[in-house]
TrEMBL record:
This is Glycosyl transferase family 90-domain-containing protein. It comes from the Eukaryota. The keyword Protein transport does not apply. InterPro entries: CAP10 (IPR006598), O-Glucosyltr/Glycosyltrsf_90 (IPR051091). SMART domains: CAP10. It comes from Mycena albidolilacea. Keywords: Membrane, Transferase, Transmembrane, Transmembrane helix. PANTHER family: KDEL LYS-ASP-GLU-LEU CONTAINING - RELATED (PTHR12203), PROTEIN O-GLUCOSYLTRANSFERASE 1 (PTHR12203:SF35).
């Protein structure tokens, strides 16, 4: 010890400058007491030496101290910042919240999902939609643990044999592949998604619905249907094609949708073409596990996942945001929409009830004068093949010329409309990025509906469009508030609904799917 002290002190005090700038030697014994600071420095060096030899001896160093708590901002936090602030910050916290909300442990490989989500800055705790979609299957698993796997196998056989708008994949030993010989518009995108996360996936078989419409017409919210869910009695699963579909949904009361959230109960079935005369029905009434881009809640039990239309990187993603966008103050305070006549099979005059034709009718009323610039650009004549459909008469009635409008026209208007066609609108997220305020009317649910909130990120409109004019007038009278809603919607889509967030959502869906297929609860 003394040798070390002498060595250290001699290095510190062996050479001192003289008045003439040259150095002279002096002995430590001739100096006065060593300053306390010098002693501290010397002892620190000694401890460093001992620490070095201690670590070289094979013993592990003590764990590093925990990271400091997140600093508390003194300024106001934006809603998006508040959303991310409230997410779990550790795996233990995320697991605890999962258990509290769902009454069961997270699925296998949840820790790998958590690492993936943190690395990609995804939401951690905001997945109530996934749990709603899987809850009926978890309840059935308490009676029959193999039910989910049996129904997946049934669905796979139907897809492999008859297609019927279904596509099957499997993940085996971390490698995804397709298991049928049919193709769809989304095959490449879905394979890319699976390859992105397959290293963390258990073995599983998957059934995708590659049509735009939902396919599993089973309402688990009807009382006393638990045992019915275990019953497989649909003799033509995914082949059911009632025409008109209103006979099944409305007359037989399989899907009655409220026209609004408040007041006396009336139904919106007569205001939507899917419920009246769907362009593509082909559903099943048995509870099959099927991954779909959309559904109608609670009438359908499809399991939602992000569509190709929701991925900015995807070819099908609508592109409405460009650097040369028109500033808000230079946009016209008018509602804009252009699109085809998609919606359903036209039979007689039933098209007057279809949302896109109804939109034109609303624009022609005196109350809407000067408020709307809307038009059907193309009559989709494929759906005009039934008795009583006169294509030329419809074109003349609605001034359908067949001329497409440039997409850039959207930017010249403060308000843009998003409305159902055959199914959900693939334009929605693109329109939210456009710099214009989105007015949206839909009966279809998508995976992000818990996150994109009415009156916060967009303006909701009733299915029959009866409140559309009133909503436009409000926006014109409250320009600053309308602008705030537009900015909130655009910011949310750009900052939250990213490709990475979509991957995180899909990843967690697959882990829940894999647990049920393996018989887990």
């Amino acid at each position: 010890m003394m040798n070390i002290l002498n060595s250290v002190f001699s290095r510190v005090y062996s050479r001192v400058p003289s008045q003439n700038g040259r150095f002279r030697q002096r002995k430590f014994a001739r100096r006065c007491l060593v300053s306390p600071l010098t002693v501290v420095i010397a002892l620190g060096g000694i401890f460093s030496v001992f620490a070095f030899f201690f670590l070289r001896s094979g013993n592990e160093a003590p764990p590093p101290p925990p990271p400091p708590p997140r600093p508390i901002s003194t300024g106001p936090r934006t809603p998006i910042e508040q959303l991310f602030d409230r997410q779990s910050t550790t795996l233990e916290e995320a697991v605890a919240r999962y258990v509290l909300r769902n009454g069961r442990r997270p699925p296998r490989n949840y820790d790998q999902w958590y690492t993936f989500a943190k690395r990609h800055e995804c939401l951690i705790d905001e997945y109530a939609q996934i749990q709603r979609d899987f809850e009926p299957f978890y309840q059935l698993a308490q009676k029959d643990r193999k039910f989910f796997a049996k129904m997946v196998n049934r669905g796979t056989k139907i897809a492999v044999t008859d297609n019927m708008g279904l596509k099957t994949f499997k993940v085996e030993k971390k490698v995804p592949s397709t298991t049928d010989g049919f193709t769809s518009n989304y095959d490449g995108g879905w394979m890319f998604l699976l390859q992105n996360i397959s290293a963390s996936l258990p073995d599983m078989n998957l059934v995708f619905n590659h049509r735009d419409e939902p396919r599993v017409a089973f309402d688990a919210r009807i009382p006393n249907t638990l045992d019915e869910g275990l019953t497989v009695d649909d003799v033509a699963p995914f082949f059911n094609q009632p025409r008109p579909t209103s006979k099944f949904y409305t007359d037989e009361k399989h899907c009655l949708l409220p026209s609004g959230p408040n007041g006396f109960l009336t139904y919106a079935n007569d205001a939507n073409s899917f419920l009246l005369y769907s362009a593509s029905a082909d559903f099943t009434t048995d509870l099959y596990p099927v991954l779909s881009q959309t559904k109608i809640y609670p009438c359908f039990a499809d399991i939602l996942f992000p569509s190709e239309f929701h991925y900015p990187r995807a070819y099908n993603s609508p592109k409405y945001a460009y650097p040369d966008n028109v500033p808000w103050d230079e946009k016209k305070p008018v509602l804009y929409w252009r699109g085809q006549s998609t919606g359903g099979w036209i039979y007689g005059d039933n098209y007057h009830s279809f949302p896109r034709f109804r939109l034109i009718d609303v624009a022609r009323t005196p109350a809407a004068a000067g408020l709307m610039d809307v038009a059907i650009s193309v009559l989709y004549e494929h759906y005009c093949g039934l008795e009583g459909c006169d294509a030329e008469r419809i074109k003349a009635e609605y001034n359908i010329t067949g001329a497409d409008a440039p997409r850039e026209d959207v930017y010249r208007y403060k308000y843009v409309f998003d409305v159902d066609g055959n199914s959900f609108s693939g334009r929605y997220l693109g329109l939210l990025k456009s710099g214009s305020l989105v007015f949206k009317s839909t009966i279809f649910a998508e995976y992000f509906d818990d996150w994109l909130q009415p009156f916060v990120h967009y303006i909701p409109v009733l299915p029959d469009l009866s409140d559309l004019v009133e909503r436009i007038e409000w926006a014109r009278a409250h320009d600053a508030e309308a602008r705030r809603i537009q900015q909130a919607g655009q910011e949310f889509v750009e900052r939250v609904l990213t490709d990475a967030q979509n991957d995180c959502y899909f990843f967690l869906v697959l882990l829940e799917w894999a647990r049920l297929q393996s018989g887990g609860r």
